[in-house]
From TrEMBL:
This is PaaX family transcriptional regulator C-terminal domain-containing protein. SUPFAM superfamilies: Winged helix' DNA-binding domain (SSF46785). It holds the Pfam family PaaX_M. Residues 184-261 form the Transcriptional repressor PaaX-like C-terminal domain. It comes from Nonomuraea guangzhouensis. It comes from the Bacteria. Residues 99-178 form the Transcriptional repressor PaaX-like central Cas2-like domain. Residues 11-79 form the Transcriptional repressor PaaX-like N-terminal domain.
């Protein structure tokens, strides 16, 4: 079990997303709740917390129940596959450093009345999640061309929102936009915290085994890259800590995978399912 010094700040649901992404996504299986509880016990997560997390994810349309005899198995829904695929792309394909930026920015401007205050809050939260920063009142920007249709469609804001792509022209410089809209020091601090935790000869010595370390590592990293707006490398310091952090993640993920996979195959009870249930 993890000691207090190694305790993760991640919620059980964040750990569950990592577990599902590594051991369920793309396998056409559902997993027995009891075996999930056994895995999460290695992370210091209680049976009650695991069952509560599974139930909440069913209610949110992320997991589907499959009964076999007296056992209950949990498999992915179509919605969960979309969420987990997005996480997989961010971890393995997008990368932590944006070296391919073409100079374009996506701009989202809005003026939403107080009668839609909660919707305005939801929009802001979604924009931050998608890597946007607040440039000035009512105007958010993100590097590159972003498809924000998926964010806007369920909010039904219509003419309250304007979306466009643009490039900076003098006297405006892209470096100024980065400085005004994003806290690069806050982003860097998160990567330094990751390095403090993982860039050591023996990370998390109190963890139960490599399966626990693997899931903790993936959870830490996914939370990092999902909070990173993926700013252009040319406007970041040469010693940007995301460069080293990404190297550490890939090295440890590769090192943990073989033994973690053996442990998971021993612990997990899986049921073949035909397809996700939407």
């Amino acid at each position: 079990m993890l000691g207090d010094a190694d305790a993760l700040t991640a919620r059980p649901q964040s750990l569950m997303f990592s577990f599902l992404g590594v051991y369920v996504l793309g396998r056409g299986t559902a997993v027995y709740s009891g075996s999930v509880i056994d895995v999460f016990a290695r992370l210091g997560v209680t049976e009650e917390a695991v069952r509560s997390t599974l139930t909440r994810m069913v209610k949110r349309g992320l997991l589907a129940r499959h009964r076999q005899g007296r056992r209950m198995y949990f498999g992915l829904t179509e919605h969960a596959v979309e969420v987990l695929d997005d996480g997989r792309r961010r971890v393995w394909e997008t990368g932590a450093v944006n070296r391919d930026w073409d100079g374009a920015w996506t701009l989202v401007g809005f003026s939403i009345p107080d009668s839609l205050r909660s919707t305005r809050h939801d929009l802001r939260s979604q924009l931050i999640w998608a890597g946007f920063g607040l440039l000035q009142s009512g105007l958010w920007i993100a590097p590159g061309v972003k498809d924000v249709g998926g964010i806007l469609a369920p909010l039904e804001l219509g003419d309250h929102v304007t979306v466009m792509t643009a490039r900076a022209f003098k006297p405006t410089e892209s470096a100024d936009l980065v400085r005004k809209a994003f806290s690069t020091e806050r982003i860097a601090a998160r990567y330094r915290a990751f390095l403090d935790r993982w860039d050591t000869p023996n990370p998390l010595p109190s963890a139960a085994d490599d399966l626990a370390r693997q899931l903790l590592l993936h959870t830490d990293w996914l939370q990092l890259v999902r909070q990173d707006p993926h700013l252009p490398a040319e406007h970041l310091p040469a010693d940007w800590p995301a460069i080293r952090a990404e190297q550490v993640f890939h090295t440890l993920a590769r090192d943990y995978e073989p033994s973690a996979r053996v442990l998971a195959d021993t612990v997990l009870d899986e049921l073949a399912v035909t397809s996700p249930v939407s």
